[in-house]
Amino acid sequence: MTGLAELDTEQLVDQASAGDPEARAQLLVRHRGRLRQMIASRLDRRMAARVDPSDVVQEALTDAAGKLSDYLRLRPLPFYPWLRQLAWQRLVDLHRRHVRAQSRSVTREEGQALPLADESAVQLADRLLARGAGPMSNLLQAELRCRVRAVLDSLPEHDREVLVLRHLEQLSTKEMAAVLGISEGAVKMRQVRALQRFRDELDGPNREDES
Fold first, then answer.
1. Which end of the chain has the least Cβ crowding within 10 Å, N or C?
2. How far apart are CA 129 and CA 134, in angstroms?
3. Same domain membership, residue 137 and residue 89
4. Do 54 and 92 sit in the same domain of this protein?
């Protein structure tokens, strides 16, 4: 089929549902990079030497291939959140096995977030601050990043996770709603509240100094 690579995911889902084998194959590879980024961003440093994100992605895609027919019939979620959910489950299982996290089932993101890798926390800090290419000295940047990491760690889990999904994983509002199991309107409200809490916490010491 010509032009298959230019089709959006929903069109590919429709064509795969109609029995197009090329569309099925394309669905299973087009989000490989996004999945790898998600997994790498959550990979605990204690697992990094033993777990390759690309291997986790391949296992998730193999799982998805076996479940794709059922997905195409039922379509319980938009395609990428469904695919991400399979990769997430594998990542949580690995975390339990290697880091001995408390066992619990994962069907939704909320309440079951994994910690960010150090490099991902720095990347998220830069995106939230929008100062990555600014004139600050390296020392000030390092101090600010440490402060941002402390603020992120202090936020309620649901606030921190919505910032990660939007600014690090760069999910759309629709995708975030599917991942979190809430409406798109609730996603938008949660984003606004989370950003405000982040800014309030980050500016807290400055306000105290000025008073």
1. C
2. 10
3. no
4. yes
Is the pLDDT at 8 greater than 80, yes or no?
yes
Which CATH number covers residue 141? 1.10.10.10
Tell the residue number behind the tokens 């889902």, with chain if given: 13
Domain count, the chain: 2
Per-residue confidence (pLDDT) for residue 98, from 0 to 100: 74
- How far is residue 130's CA from residue 110's CA, in Å, rounded to a whole number? 26
Q: What is the mean pLDDT of the chain?
A: 83
Query: In the structure encoding, which two tokens stand for residue 130, read together?
Result: 């929008």
What is the three-state SS of the chain? CCCHHHCCHHHHHHHHHCCCHHHHHHHHHCCHHHHHHHHHHHCCHHHHCCCCHHHHHHHHHHHHHHHHHHHHHHCCCCHHHHHHHHHHHHHHHHHHHHHCCCCCCCCCCCCCCCCCCHHHHHHHHHHHHCCCCCCCCHHHHHHHHHHHHHHHHHCCHHHHHHHHHHHHCCCCHHHHHHHHCCCHHHHHHHHHHHHHHHHHHHHHHHHHHHC
pLDDT for 14 beyond 90: yes
The count of other CB atoms within 10 Å of the CB of residue 206 is 9
Containing domain of residue 151, as a range? 118-210
Cβ neighbours for 23, distance < 8 A, ≥ 6 positions apart: 1, 4, 7, 12, 13, 15, 16
Write down the residue that tokens 């010491």 correspond to.
205
Report CA 134 to chain centroid distance, whole Å: 26
Amino acid making up residue 60: A
Q: pTM of whole model > 0.90?
A: no
